[in-house]
């Protein structure tokens, strides 16, 4: 279904859990609950999710340029790209793409606020990520989005060291670097990929409500992952 993430992209997840004092058992529990809740879902069962993933993959592979959009993106930065550009937005940064033109999907652990909900209401595909402390968020979104006239197509991801049928571990940690891992895992050529709105010391305008000191600490991990993958030159100070 997709290329396996690099060992380093997976190893960092264990290191992040250790750094923040998080439990892998909590991550596993959240992922398994999400998997179970959508197992027989009319809209979001594994067959429908695989179709969504294949559609996203086709769009990304066929694009001339793939732009991963981070939370510090400016509208003007995204107006310079041509019509055959595909965008992968990290959570609330989808707000930088108001007409969703060229948007392939949103990568989100579901704290993107109004920008994420608005995009979901417009049936934009979402790569929903489960981790130990977002169970309430994904439960709420699944219930809300399922009532939309045109619910968003979904793909599911997790961050644990075991196989979970119908879910994927693409590697990475934050929505931004996980989005990059996702794009690479689908076989998109690295030279086609650009990052916009990735900043090391600035919490972007599209970030949801957040603990600023903790967020800045997370951005240090983002920089490490993105740089390890060879895209560190796109990160702004």
Topology:
Blueprint: H1 7-20, H2 24-37, H3 46-62, E1 65-69, H4 75-78, E2 85-90, E3 103-108, H5 113-121, E4 126-129, H6 135-145, E5 154-157, H7 175-185, E6 193-196, H8 212-228
Parallel strand pairs: 1-2, 1-6, 2-3, 3-4, 4-5
What can you tell me about this protein's structure?
The chain has 237 residues and is an alpha/beta fold. The chain has one domain. It is 41% helix and 12% strand. It contains eight helices and six strands; from the N terminus they run αααβαββαβαβαβα. It has helices at 7-20, 24-37, 46-62, 75-78, 113-121, 135-145, 175-185, 212-228; strands spanning 65-69, 85-90, 103-108, 126-129, 154-157, 193-196. Strands 5-4-3-2-1-6 form a six-stranded parallel sheet, sandwiched between helices. Strand 1 (65-69), helix 4 (75-78) and strand 2 (85-90) form a beta-alpha-beta unit. The longest helix has 17 residues, at 46-62. The radius of gyration is 16 Å and the shape is globular.
User: What proportion strand?
Assistant: 5-15%
Indicate the structural class: alpha/beta
* Sequence of secondary-structure elements: HHHEHEEHEHEHEH
Number of domains: 1
Instruction: Determine the number of helices (DSSP H or I, runs of at least 4 residues).
Output: 8
Query: What is the end-to-end distance?
Result: 36 Å
Helix content: 40-55%
The global form is: globular
Low-confidence stretches: none
Question: How large is the radius of gyration?
Answer: 16 Å
| Biggest β-sheet description | 6 strands, parallel
- Mean pLDDT comes to 92
The strand line-up of the biggest sheet is: 5-4-3-2-1-6
Please give the number of β-strands. Answer: 6
């Amino acid at each position: 279904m997709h290329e396996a993430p690099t060992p380093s992209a997976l190893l960092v997840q264990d290191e992040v859990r250790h750094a923040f004092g998080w439990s892998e058992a909590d991550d596993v529990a959240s992922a398994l609950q999400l998997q179970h809740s959508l197992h027989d879902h009319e809209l979001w069962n594994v067959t429908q999710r695989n179709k969504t993933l294949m559609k996203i993959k086709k769009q990304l592979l066929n694009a001339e340029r793939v732009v991963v959009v981070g939370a510090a993106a400016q509208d003007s930065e995204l107006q310079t790209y041509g019509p055959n550009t595909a965008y992968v937005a990290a959570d609330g940064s989808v707000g930088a793409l108001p007409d969703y033109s060229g948007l392939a999907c949103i990568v989100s652990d579901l704290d993107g606020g109004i920008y994420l909900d608005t995009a979901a209401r417009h049936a934009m595909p979402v790569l929903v990520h489960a981790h130990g402390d977002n169970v309430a968020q994904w439960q709420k979104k699944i219930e809300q989005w399922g009532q939309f006239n045109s619910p968003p197509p979904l793909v599911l991801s997790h961050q644990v060291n075991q196989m979970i049928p119908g879910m994927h571990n693409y590697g990475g940690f934050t929505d931004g670097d996980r989005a990059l891992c996702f794009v690479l895992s689908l076989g998109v050529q690295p030279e086609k990929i650009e990052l916009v709105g990735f900043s090391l010391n600035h919490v972007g305008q599209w970030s949801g409500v957040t603990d600023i000191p903790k967020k800045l600490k997370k951005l240090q991990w983002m920089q490490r992952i993105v740089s390890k993958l060879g895209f560190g030159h796109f990160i702004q100070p």
